[in-house]
Amino acid sequence: MTAVQAPAGAGLTRLDPAALRPDFAILSRTVRNGRPLVYLDSGATSQRPRQVLDAEREFLEQHNAAVHRGAHLLAEEATDAYESARSRIAAFVGAEPDELVFVKNATEGINLVAYAMSNSSVRTGLGAESERFALGPGDEIVVTELEHHANLVPWQELCRRTGATLRWYEVTDSGRIDLDSLELSERTKVVAFAHQSNVLGSVAPVAELVRRARAVGALVVLDACQSVPHMPVDLRALDVDFAVFSGHKMLGPSGVGVLYGRTELLEAMPPFLTGGSMIELVRMEGSTYAPPPQRFEAGVPMTSQAVGLGAAVDYLSAIGMDALHAHELELAQVALDGLRALPGVRIIGPETLESRGGTVAFVVDGVHAHDVGQVLDDRGIAVRVGHHCAWPLHRRFGVAATVRASFHCYNTVDEVAQLAEGVRAAQEFFGVAGAGTGD
Amino acid sequence: MQLEQMYQEIILDHYRSPHGSGLKDPFDAESQQINPTCGDEITLRVKLDDAGEKVLDVSHETLGCSISQASASVLTDLVVGQTVDEAMRILAAFQEMAQGRGKVEPDEDVLGDAIAFAGVAKYPARVKCALLGWMAFKDAVVRVQDGKGATA
User: Is the peptide bond between A293 and the residue preceding it cis, with omega within 30 degrees of 0?
Assistant: First the structure.
C-alpha cells in the first residue's frame, strides 16, 4: 500500500551506516552538555527510520479504520494494509501469514502460549485437540538460566497454576547454555529458550535443543526478540513450534509484536484473550472460535503499528540481514577489543564472535554499572545498566548489574570506539584506572 | 561537565569510606530493600533506646552504586543520636529534595551533608538509588514500633 523508499546503500553487501543515518532523525540530536547522541541501547529498543514513521502516518491519514469489520472502503483498505504487513513480516521470518499472530509485544506472545496451555490444563469442555497442551503435576517445563524474565516468569506462573515443575539448563562460564546440565524426560512438555541472550549476545544451539525436545515430544518455544532484529532468521528452517519477537526492537513501532506458531498447533490451541473478532459463532449458551490467526486476535487490534512493522521489515530486507549481522559483529569486535584492553574490565559472555550476536555486556572492577552508565551518559553515550530483566543470569555470574552495549544498522565503528574511551574515563573518575597493571 | 554536579566530592568521600557499613548487633529491627530495576540491595539495622524515642545506632550492608552507598552513609551520620521524630523529619526533607527534580531548595540546617544529593534529583533514574537506604531506615523504625523486628 505504502511504497517504502529504499534506504540509501540498500543491496550493497557491506552495510554503510553513514548512508542510513539520515533516515533516523533522532540520531542527529544532541544530549547532555550538547554532545552528539551515541545510541548503544538498541537491544532495549531500536530507533525508527522515517520510512516506518511515514508508513504509519500515511496509513492514518489515508486508510485508518477498524480492521476485519465493516464493508466501507476505508475498512477494506485498512484490512488490506494490516494483512499485507502480516504477509511481509511472515516472509521475513520464513513463515506463512496464517502462522503469525499480532500481539502487543513478545511478552504477550509468550503469555498467550502459557495461558492457552493453562486453559487446556483445566480440562473443562474444550475440544479433544487441546489435550496436547494440557499440563499437570509431574509434567515439566524447561527453560534456561539466561532467560529474560519474559521467558521465565510466565512459565513459573504456568507451573504454579498447573502443578507442573520448572527445570532449567544452567549457563557455562563463557555464557553458553550448558547442554550437559539437564536431561529432558518423557514428562518434558515445553522447552523454551532465547535464540540470542539479551545480555551476553550468545546464540543458542537451536538445532540441538530442538532435536532433544523432539526426542521427548516436547514443544519448542523460541524467544527470538534479540535474533530476528539482527540476523537472518528462518523459523521454518529452525523447526521451532512457537516463536516471539517485538516490533520496537527491529526498527518498528512499539505496541506490536508477533507470535509465530506452526499451523497445526495454532489450529489445535484454545484462545487466551476472548471477545470480538476472534469468534466464529456466538449464542447466549456458548461460542465457537475463528480459525487462527484471528482466534488469537481478540478486539480491534493495533493497526498503524502493524503497518509500521511491515515497513520496518521492508527496510531491513533492503539493507540485507546478512549484511546487518556482519556489521554488528564488526562493531562487537571493536567493543570487545577496546574493553579487553582496559585492565579491570571483565566481559560477561562470549569473548569471541563464534555463535554470537552484537550485544556486549561487561563489569568494571570497583565501579558499579550505574556509575559507569552515568559517566557514559555524561559523554552522550546511551547504554543499558542493571540486570536487563535477566536477574538469575546476573546472580549466576555473581554480579548485581552489568553494563550492556547493543547495536543496530546505524551505529558506526567510531561510536563503538567511544565506548571504551568512556569506560576508561569512568575508571579515572572513580579512581580505579589502571587497576591491576600498576600504570 | 555535569558529572561533578551529581558526584560531589562529599558523595565520593562517603562512597569510598562509608559510615555505618557492616551489620552490627544488637539491633531492634532489620529491613531489606531492593531496587527491582537494577538489583541493588541494602540490609539496614536500627537500634533505638528503650523508650523507642531515640536512634542509638544504624548499620547497613549495601550492595549498590556509589549513590546508594554514599546515601546510606550520610543517613547514618544524620540520624544516629537524633530522636525518632527528628530523624523522620530529616527523612521527609531528604525525600522531598530527592524527588524534587532539582526544583526543591534543600535546607542545609536540616540535611547537612545530604544537600550534596540535590544534584541527583536532576536524574530521575538515580533517585531510587539515593532513597534506598532511607526507605530501609523508615521501614526498620516502623518495624520496631510495630514490634516485629525481623525482615519480612
Answer: yes
